[in-house]
Amino acid sequence: MTQTVSERAWRDTGRPFPYVLMYHSIAVHERDPYLVTVDPRRFDQQLRWMRDTGLRGVSMRELLLAHWAGEACGLVGLTFDDGYADFARNALPALRRYGFTATVFVIAGRIGGDNEWDPEGPRKRLMTAVEVREVAESGVEVGSHGLLHQHMSYLDDDELVPEVVESRELLREITGQDVTGFCYPYGDVDQRVVDTVAAAGYEYGCAIWRSEVSGLHALPRTYIGDRDGTLRLHAKHLRHRLTGALTARQVRRAPAVRSATGSVLKFR
To answer: Are 189 and 213 in contact (CB under 8 A)?
Structure first.
């Protein structure tokens, strides 16, 4: 991206937030206690719905450039958190079939490991450095999901800065490309964390829910899970269109926000 904007500038323009979907794992599964896995057949149905609805899935980089140029109509950002190996195996081929691309947020300090932060869930392998490089070379944008998948607001500055800075450096070395996007593990973000990400040179950040720090470095996203068939996808898209003009400066007056599991979320 060549164009950046401060959080204050975003709020003052009154621009709506772009439409961004949040995925994690695309795999056949029996147990999914954290609701992070979408079956490949369901994923294909979701991509087909997007295409038939006139939407085209793109990376965050492409979406934001189009958004600021006023050319984002019909575009939806597709993001995949954690960098699971099934992204390369299952998600990428499906995206290619539909002519879509995406952004995958990789945990730089756990490359080649697994999702040990989900103790009650099945083990899921994370992409190796070779796989991360291959998906980057295929045209997928690679962003940072930190070093170790930690709650960012819980960290002191000495811990927070490496999560933001060192993860970017590692991913740059692996991909040979710039890393311009950051995604907050667990959607955990406050003003100090946002400021750290912006100061590190990231051009945007992805959160989950709307909050008082929503803006270019804490963009809200729409959760997509295995239960999301065409009716639910349509409802979520309609909800975004109806509330899309809600900018960061209006969040304080917004109704309570609920997580994917239905619990009311409170923001620090």
So the answer is: yes
